[in-house]
Amino acid sequence: MKTLKFIPLLLLFVFTSCSTVRVVSDYDSKTNFSKYKTFAFYKPGIDKAKISDLDKKRIMREIEANLTLKGMTVSETPDMLISIFTKERERIDVYNSYGYGYGYRYGGWYGGGTYASSTPEGTLFIDLIDRNKNELVWQGIGVGDLVMSSVEKKEARIKDIVTKILAQYPPGSETK
Prior knowledge:
The protein is an alpha/beta fold. The protein has helices spanning about 1-15, 45-50, 55-70, 150-165; strands spanning about 20-25, 40, 75, 80-105, 105-130, 135-145. The longest helix is centred in the middle third of the chain and has 17 residues, at about 55-70.
């Protein structure tokens, strides 16, 4: 039943641009985000993410760097817990093409066709959980292509995705 709630969100991502990172966030509008000063990673949640341990480390490093830039610090007794979740799927792009031409010995011609290509696409969910209430208060989602030919490109891609997701945090000043 939970997955049915994400179908409209996933359809939104399918019909948007394919080469960039697309991000969206959701949050509890009754939460005062200015009270969160410290954070820690929620290991049980991160362990469930179906990606390599190396990619988990890369993502956690980037999350820590971004939150530190926002004035937050890592703590043994945090205000907020951070968890991640990932999904991967093949995105299919369909193209229609038409052409006109003229050949020297064969006269004019008209042609066209439909072509399809597939690209691996990943979705990264970053969940921020109020430690005292044990409730999700903010979620950022980033979707982007996963085609990377080197470790450097993979690290740059992860940095780009995490930075764009966390650019939407905090959602604003204290909400009424």
